[in-house]
């Protein structure tokens, strides 16, 4: 079901508001796992992780998700804003 973390992980602060996360996956086209998880990383006191479906999640292309790694400890109706890109 869930795959191992493949490749290299890097996280750094770009400035006070921007956090940069890099997950380099080696030999991506040869991965057989249905789902892969990144290592957990912390932004603004919350643990996050990226998970992917290399062959898609009910679609025929890569599916990428940002998830809260510590959701059991969050208050009811908690929400956060995240923006992907440069």
From TrEMBL:
<dbReference type="InterPro" id="IPR002083">
    <property type="entry name" value="MATH/TRAF_dom"/>
</dbReference>
<dbReference type="InterPro" id="IPR050804">
    <property type="entry name" value="MCC"/>
</dbReference>
<protein>
    <recommendedName>
        <fullName>MATH domain-containing protein</fullName>
    </recommendedName>
</protein>
<keyword id="KW-0175">Coiled coil</keyword>
<dbReference type="InterPro" id="IPR008974">
    <property type="entry name" value="TRAF-like"/>
</dbReference>
<feature type="domain" description="MATH">
    <location>
        <begin position="18"/>
        <end position="86"/>
    </location>
</feature>
<dbReference type="Pfam" id="PF22486">
    <property type="entry name" value="MATH_2"/>
</dbReference>
